[in-house]
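Example 3.
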Amino acid sequence: MIRIGVIGCGYWGPNLIRNFHDNDRSAVAMVCDLDPAKLARATRFAPTAQTTTDVATMLTSDIDAVVIATPVSSHYELALAALEAGKHVLIEKPMAATSVQCARLIEEATRRGLVLMVDHTFVYTGAVRKIRELVQNGDLGQVYYYDSVRVNLGLFQHDVDVLWDLAVHDLSIIEYVLGRHPVAVSASGVSHVTGSPANLAFLTLFFDDETVAHVNANWLAPVKIRRTLIGGSKKMIVYDDLEPSEKIKIYDKGITVAEQDEEIYKMLIGYRVGDMWAPNLDSVEALRRETDHFLDCIENRQRPETDGAMGQRVVEILEAASLSMRERGRPVALSERTGK
Amino acid sequence: MIRIGVIGCGYWGPNLIRNFHDNDRSAVAMVCDLDPAKLARATRFAPTAQTTTDVATMLTSDIDAVVIATPVSSHYELALAALEAGKHVLIEKPMAATSVQCARLIEEATRRGLVLMVDHTFVYTGAVRKIRELVQNGDLGQVYYYDSVRVNLGLFQHDVDVLWDLAVHDLSIIEYVLGRHPVAVSASGVSHVTGSPANLAFLTLFFDDETVAHVNANWLAPVKIRRTLIGGSKKMIVYDDLEPSEKIKIYDKGITVAEQDEEIYKMLIGYRVGDMWAPNLDSVEALRRETDHFLDCIENRQRPETDGAMGQRVVEILEAASLSMRERGRPVALSERTGK
Amino acid sequence: MIRIGVIGCGYWGPNLIRNFHDNDRSAVAMVCDLDPAKLARATRFAPTAQTTTDVATMLTSDIDAVVIATPVSSHYELALAALEAGKHVLIEKPMAATSVQCARLIEEATRRGLVLMVDHTFVYTGAVRKIRELVQNGDLGQVYYYDSVRVNLGLFQHDVDVLWDLAVHDLSIIEYVLGRHPVAVSASGVSHVTGSPANLAFLTLFFDDETVAHVNANWLAPVKIRRTLIGGSKKMIVYDDLEPSEKIKIYDKGITVAEQDEEIYKMLIGYRVGDMWAPNLDSVEALRRETDHFLDCIENRQRPETDGAMGQRVVEILEAASLSMRERGRPVALSERTGK
Amino acid sequence: MIRIGVIGCGYWGPNLIRNFHDNDRSAVAMVCDLDPAKLARATRFAPTAQTTTDVATMLTSDIDAVVIATPVSSHYELALAALEAGKHVLIEKPMAATSVQCARLIEEATRRGLVLMVDHTFVYTGAVRKIRELVQNGDLGQVYYYDSVRVNLGLFQHDVDVLWDLAVHDLSIIEYVLGRHPVAVSASGVSHVTGSPANLAFLTLFFDDETVAHVNANWLAPVKIRRTLIGGSKKMIVYDDLEPSEKIKIYDKGITVAEQDEEIYKMLIGYRVGDMWAPNLDSVEALRRETDHFLDCIENRQRPETDGAMGQRVVEILEAASLSMRERGRPVALSERTGK
């Protein structure tokens, strides 16, 4: 039985508590939050958990792993303390406020042989895993683009902008599905509340070929949209995360390009329209798969699918996006930011 | 009875022919195209029209007005010849290949007292007119953003990229609805066919305050989407042009911002969720309203709602976007391009 | 060139005129309506057509075939006169006001060797033809049910109720797709306008096994719905005629039934959920296919797919439904009505 | 603190357990099921609950109220025993297997002054309460019809048919919203599994005027649909329970009827198309409102909104429907069945 401590009982923490409590291989031994009312509420359905408002109490207890579900600005300090106390760590996304902090955490976990996992939940959904399968086995052909709209009337975060809050999901999906890293970004965005981070932003990722990715993220939209178009040379996908049953639709559609003999630079473009197909998806709850994977990694000292390295790459892209956004879309090379 | 000559029997020309033929105040007197088969087809339902493959024949005839529905690259030459022949002119969008050409056409029309109108059809839809009314009478409050997705598996144009073909609609709508002009743009886009213009592009328009506009245009999408979100400080709109009956939905949703006494820079953000309302829209066909307006302008020597000046401003933005796209989103000031 | 005369320029007539005018093998030679304004309007796009307000003038002319697009109550008299004048006949659905009238028309056409076709347009759509193919080749397994909702805010007919106006479409589809005939019906419906036929009705068709069909028809609905569920032992279909591109979705879903050894009458039911598939449909316009078929039948003296016999069977079911509706759903055997 | 005992840990029981556990005014003191695995599972998140496989143990304990979430066939016996043991009772719908049993339970509860409530959950949703408000305050005008489609691939029940399982929801909504009772029913339905109750059924309810209600219920549908159209003389409603945010849309649409002077029996029907409006709904969870109401009724000896009388009327309609279904839709008067 792996003993889990959870820090943070805000929006996401209770979901993690519920899942680790519900898993036969783990017990939620302790829960920490500064607000006693939230603590009481969060443990109402997790009767085995002790509560504390003091992180040190948790870190000196006999728990095996710490789950961090607090605001981003506190991730680094809490995760570092947990690793130094010899605990495995699962951190809510994004991993930390800077990529330098990410690197430091990876180093500490590696040195101590501890599991360091980032809670990029979408990677554990049946939909995203199916998309990865379709891309990796060549069904889509060459991937042309990833184009996501992720908007709703959502909680305005105080410490991070809308890209760090929403586009972060797409960045982890892109990393997982494509297995490739962008070389530059251009981002534009605005804040409509004085003193608050950007609540609306558009992010383009450039790769070293014609592949392009785009994310439209918005906290101030009238409706909720979670839809991604993925275009390939052979097939195209519509991934709508709000569809209850057919989240992925695969279209056998596209263009055909034929060179014309005499005018080699003028292409003859044809259009192909075929069937649509919605595969039945694995219905395991993403958080269930994720908690199982975290427990597996601890038991077998495995590297998680959403490890620190992925977490760091995502933060690097977000840092470059922030830089670009301040200059109205100026392209920022990933190497520019990281000095590579 | 105003006698109309139509040049170009491709995709759009036949719609214009049908409308001018169906209007009691006009007759389609002549139709011109290089392809006799297209000519025969286009006039099957317009029995009064003579046909010709020679533009000069049309321009020396007794028609009153010329409607130009040819590829963009030919707009300038044809429109100039028509104006010089003393004919009123309606040009399909975009108005011309460069803003310099637009300026020259405006000058010629003004000098001769002729009507010069650009076929920005969306301006004549019941939906866009209702949105303008809602914005102009203050129902939306301050407009925060205009965010449009306009994608489908569409015809790859040979002479213009996807922004000139699709985003052009949004630019005319923005001009008409907001009555304001952007100060800078950032655009990114790619071509997935060697030697072909960009088939996928993202365009951000910056204004001199926090207003922002964004257009996602794509010829290579698996599904057709025509959806625009418009956010305001009081209300927000979803405009879905593919909805058969409720194209506009107005959401009484948003945020409230309260300053906190002691920390003046820290805002307290509240969320407001109220009713949704879909106004019944005027059902006049847009092309019908547009042809009527063109005929009115000719009869009364009026300035059209979509006049040359609007056509020119749209082309200026497209030119700036093309410049930005070549440099992966580098922000381009509108003044930079036009030398203002 | 087959010369066509069209009687009736109401809602549907102009569509038929447009199609026969547009077909290279036919010409619309004459159009008849009592209202000169409608006549002028209907022939605006069909310049070859003479107009008349007198049916006799048309029937004594040299046309080859008559298309009847008038109210139901006049179908019989007009069609009989046309047949007696030696013209082939295409009648808008439903074929006639009584099945006895249908029988008389069939007899007359047969005797004279003329084509008698009923305009059950849905039979000529790509969607319905694909459904028939899926049913006939066994993909669906045993067909369990056909369940259609066909409602909108529609024109209240004066001479027929909503089943004769809307459910008639489903009856022709059922005839065509299943190739089987019901043995009894139960119908209920009400009128919400004094003196007007039922504007809302529900119709159940019983077959000689467990197959069942149901139609929900309504002229007074707030939204337009055209959706049919078809359940089979192997697969199930959702047919939504308002979907622009994916009208048919085929679900690999259902139940499995296993007998349990000891309790032979207690079945163990399992549930099967697989992929969904939307086949690309033939995009030929239904009216185009139908007019071509009518011309083929005339040229080759073929029996139409929607011949008089199908038209008569549809009217027989409608007669039985009317009887049942007057008695709040009392089941009416088809043989009861027809005396078979 | 009201002490609750829950009998039945199948599909619905755990939801009731969670709600009574989460309510500050009640405690789940005991849970009963024959299956120890289900008991363990159901109480994992309700740590205060004792478990038992013996109903008598629960009924002789010091609990105040019994919640019955077992198959229908056991409702009567369990509820009667609970009432005789002096416990308040909440029974899952439908109330019992026969209306005679319902009457007996009402009598027993009345005699002992105990609360007897039926778990018609939909009555406690924000959507249904808003519809009732719109109907009762006259916004809809005269109600013309209630037309519901409630289908999905659902669990085939062994002891009741699909009307008793699904249409029961509509019957409680109709009772609550209209406050009127039907006078006759016609039902048709079939079973596609030998020896199993009807899995597909259509039910029409007749009232003493032109109001009509219809329910289409199906366990073997390829997709889940929960949509009800409600037509009134002034406005019409679309209630789609699967819509995440706009469950109710109110259409200002309909017909106008004008008598014509000379032909008093011939009505002139006009069509009215206005705005659509989706009111923001109370977001209290239905089960939360229901458990609160049950606790209120116990504390104040109030009569519940979904009391035994409503439960009995619903069962009476279901009995009449079963009778009609056996005879292919023969109309059954409610008085015929109940001998009133």
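Chain B is about 35% helix and 30% strand. Chain B touches chain A through 57 residues (CB under 8 Å).
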